[in-house]
Amino acid sequence: MTDKYDASGSPEGQSEPGSDGLVLANKLGITSVEEVENYEYDALLVLENTLFDEFEFDKKITTKDLCDWHKRWLGDLYKWAGNYRSVNMSKNDFQFAVAHQVQRLMDDFDDEVLSVLTPCNTMNQTQLIQALAKVHVEFILIHPFRDGNGRLGRLIMTVMALQAGQPVLDFTYIEENKEEYILAIHAGMGMNYGHMETVVTNVLKSSRD
């Protein structure tokens, strides 16, 4: 697709024949950008509906959970779903974590971030905002999967918010303030989560309104 991250030279970067290089190679032979986007959107809704019903909200979220969610979401479409990427990826000249470091970084993310900041069921508002900001920034900077990281990152935030008794999150604020969001992600490179905390605060506010 036109907005897919660069991952040239790898099977994970191959496009579906007949798609003019706009659609990732997939199990269903989909060649239309609109069709594949609709498939991914509908499949994510299915995952969210089942996950919100079955997930134990006093349970720690783990990287194993994230791989499982990713595979359940995209496994019928992409053969690499649920597995960490094996290619380097960048977007708009911003380089995400190099591929050979992803496993180690996700292990650290599991041990030092997720296991510390989840579950969120005993957090107050300030603690929740700080937890959501740090988890989201660190996950996006690693960008562990070939596709779907942003949407999976939002799903993680929503599960964490539900653990804390908040409503399902409305991310319209991020959609309408993409530059602010991107700057907040970049600030996280220096472990500065304050900008993302501001974004999260606005997301929570709009979700309650």
Quick rundown:
By secondary structure, the chain is an all-alpha fold. It has helices at 33-54, 63-74, 102-117, 125-142, 149-163, 172-176, 178-187, 194-208, and strands spanning 90-91, 94-95.
CATH architecture: Orthogonal Bundle
Shape: globular
Class per helix and strand makeup:
mainly alpha
What percent strand? under 5%
Across the major sheet, the strand order is 1-2
CATH class wording:
Mainly Alpha
- Please compute the radius of gyration using only Cα atoms: 17 Å
The number of helical runs is 8
Question: Quaternary arrangement of the chains shown?
Answer: single chain
**How helix-rich are the residues, as a percent range?**
40-55%
**N to C succession of SSEs:** HHEEHHHHHH
Major sheet description: 2 strands, antiparallel
Give the low-pLDDT segments. 1-5
The total of beta strands comes to: 2
> What is the CATH topology?
Fic-like fold
